[in-house]
């Protein structure tokens, strides 16, 4: 047996959703740079689920479906109020809430493509309401119900704060959602596909994916980046802090990638946004520190920043709590997870790799009373 640790380089499926070829990321063949510049998140959701950009009517129909399904059952809100709110991480709350939501979906166990698509709409529509509601409840505030007249991006920021976001915040948040929507067979998407390849249901697949995204080597890195920036505190401290970490063989969060060798094409968009937003909020030091960290890590380790690095200062500038950064990633990646789950069902085969056994062999069973 040849063991490929971490499945590096292993091609486990075919897919028509997104591609990473020669460090270029596309969704259904559209370059991420074009989508980041021009597309709304709703268009991207349509693209990932239908493998074509929507025309005006198709986009309106999807936008309407998302708006009409954004309300969440009162039971979720009541459930949140029972959590030990001062201890629960919002990703744990989201993971639990999505699983809980499935209990109230009458079609949860239905396995036909039409029912699965309807569940996809409901999950995408409700995920931002869930994250915003949890954020408010833990602050002792009542949830703000979703509005049907706002874009997906604006509606989330509105539900979080109770105020309509200004156009700059809406545009920045929309761009972040577009950039995070899908990424081929990343760990959380693979998890979702492994789960539903047993012919388990959509809610199980999404719950599993949220669990995988939560870790700091994957989606959890954006929160970890902000923690690091906060610990560093000033531009003057950057050099010592980063060199100490590297000398101790510790990882610098937001750097490196399993697939990209010459840099993550999403990072430059977030870097530009970070520069603009940190200036606007009067906190340019977050951007300046980030640039300095990038210079050091790139020159000493040859590791460029990934999508999580500059997203941290972007979300901070939008006034978002640091532990909501990864749930925001989940709001966007929900679209990619669902596209992959539907694709997995279309042409399913159980995913079951092998392990090379390296433990002891030919052991003799000793009865309990005779064991030392
Ligand atoms: C949305 C996303 O999921 S993007 C990724 C988000 N995760 C992070 O930012 C966490 C920090 N980065 C990392 O941990 C890694 O780069 C990963 C997990 C993204 C990719 O990991 P892998 O492909 O498995 O690389 P691996 O962890 O084996 O690292 C290879 C070498 O580069 C080093 N390295 C990799 N990333 C970093 C980093 N961020 N800081 C310092 N050194 C690093 C490792 O220490 C290792 O060095 P060694 O060969 O001397 O032991
Ligand atoms: O693809 C990966 O391994 C991680 C990543 O960048 C993502 O999920 O966006």
From TrEMBL:
Where in the sequence is the signal peptide annotated? none
Q: Name one GO cellular component term.
A: cytosol
Gene3D superfamilies, A to Z: Citrate Synthase, domain 1, Cytochrome P450-Terp, domain 2
Q: Name one GO biological process term.
A: tricarboxylic acid cycle
**Pathway named in the protein's UniProt entry:** Carbohydrate metabolism; tricarboxylic acid cycle; isocitrate from oxaloacetate: step 1/2
The record's active-site residues are 257, 308
Q: Which reaction does it catalyse?
A: oxaloacetate + acetyl-CoA + H2O = citrate + CoA + H(+)
Q: What keywords sit in the KW lines?
A: Acyltransferase, Transferase, Tricarboxylic acid cycle
Stated family: Belongs to the citrate synthase family.
Q: Which domain of life is it from?
A: Bacteria
- The organism of origin for this protein: Anoxybacillus gonensis
Provide a Gene Ontology MF annotation, just one.
Answer: citrate synthase activity
Residues spanning the membrane: none
The reply on keyword Transferase is: yes
Supply the name of the protein: Citrate synthase
């Amino acid at each position: 047996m040849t063991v490929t640790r971490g499945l590096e380089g292993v091609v486990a499926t075919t897919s028509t959703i997104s591609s990473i070829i020669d460090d270029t990321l596309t969704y259904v063949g559209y370059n991420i740079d074009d989508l980041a510049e021009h597309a709304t998140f709703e268009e991207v959701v349509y693209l990932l689920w239908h493998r074509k950009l929507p025309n005006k009517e198709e986009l309106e129909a999807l936008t309407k479906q998302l708006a009409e399904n954004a309300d969440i059952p009162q039971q979720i809100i009541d459930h949140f109020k029972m959590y030990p709110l001062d201890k629960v991480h919002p990703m744990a709350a989201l993971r639990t809430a999505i699983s809980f939501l499935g209990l109230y979906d009458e079609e949860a166990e239905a396995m036909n493509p039409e029912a699965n698509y309807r569940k996809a709409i409901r999950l995408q529509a409700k995920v931002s309401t869930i994250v915003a509601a949890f954020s408010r409840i833990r602050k002792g505030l009542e949830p703000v119900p979703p509005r049907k007249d706002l874009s997906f991006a604006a509606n989330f920021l509105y539900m979080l704060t109770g105020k309509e976001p200004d156009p700059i915040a809406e545009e920045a948040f929309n761009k972040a959602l577009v950039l995070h929507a899908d990424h081929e067979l990343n760990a959380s998407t693979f998890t979702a596909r492994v789960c539903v390849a047993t012919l388990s249901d959509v809610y199980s697949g999404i719950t599993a994916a949220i669990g995988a995204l939560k870790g700091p080597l994957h989606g959890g890195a954006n929160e970890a980046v902000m923690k690091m920036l906060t610990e560093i505190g000033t531009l003057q401290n950057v050099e010592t802090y980063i060199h100490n970490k590297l000398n101790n063989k510790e990882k610098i969060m937001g750097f490196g990638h399993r697939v990209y060798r010459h840099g993550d094409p999403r990072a430059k968009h977030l870097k530009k946004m970070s520069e603009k937003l940190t200036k606007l909020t009067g906190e340019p030091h977050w951007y300046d520190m980030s640039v300095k960290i990038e210079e050091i890590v790139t020159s000493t380790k040859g590791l460029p920043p990934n999508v999580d690095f500059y997203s941290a200062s972007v979300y901070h500038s939008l006034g978002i709590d640091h532990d909501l950064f990864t749930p925001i990633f989940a709001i966007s990646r929900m679209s990619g997870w669902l596209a992959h789950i539907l694709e997995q069902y279309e042409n399913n085969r159980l995913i079951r790799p092998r392990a090379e056994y390296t433990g002891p062999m030919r052991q003799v069973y000793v009865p309990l009373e005779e064991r030392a």
